[in-house]
């Protein structure tokens, strides 16, 4: 067990890569030795929601051919962090306007859930890459 | 999700999805419920005791299946969600329309 476990994965921007992300997350979490299930539930949920958002945005915007995303999972004494970087088109997202969908809605909850699950969620487009940074306090 | 076990019981059909219910596997749940409704089943019980993880796509599938069941004159009831699933239901307020039952028997009785 380590308080500072690090893991990276680089995968095609396709739906099946989300399974790969969760398998990597499992391994990283076990190495981390974090004990609080609620922290895991929240952070894993946010990681999966952002991975799904990247894949779906890529698919809608330009198709998935040649598109990949890179995920780094890190921890220090006070926080756990996930950073996604992808080579897709810029995302037109204003996180300050995201709200939770009505209970009757069949979709539109992903980003709202990620925001609710995290201490902070940031998005920026930099050097031709979409960068998402997810932070939970330990 | 590795599988959805399906069994007829007490006037309804019980589905037991195991593993993760995400954007990858949610279509499998939608298809299974649709097939049951087409074949005349009206009471769909989704036993979530083996569903270790759900995301917004999995929730969307449950809401969609609930609507389909009600449009067919029936209902969809969920049973025994795991801790992660319970948390996500609370975060989205979906526990108001998908009120978990403690057991399959409870769900079949109403």
Automatic annotation (TrEMBL), chain A:
It comes from the Bacteria. Residues 12-133 form the Histidine kinase/HSP90-like ATPase domain. GO terms for molecular function: protein serine/threonine kinase activity. It is an enzyme of class 2 (transferase). SUPFAM superfamilies: ATPase domain of HSP90 chaperone/DNA topoisomerase II/histidine kinase. It comes from Conyzicola lurida. Keywords: Kinase, Transferase. InterPro entries: HATPase_C_sf (IPR036890), HATPase_dom (IPR003594). Its EC number is 2.7.11.1. This is Serine/threonine-protein kinase RsbW.
Automatic annotation (TrEMBL), chain B:
Transmembrane segments: none annotated. Residues 2-110 form the STAS domain. Pfam families: STAS (PF01740). One of its GO terms (molecular function) is anti-sigma factor antagonist activity. Gene3D superfamilies: STAS domain. Belongs to the anti-sigma-factor antagonist family. This is Anti-sigma factor antagonist. It comes from Conyzicola lurida.
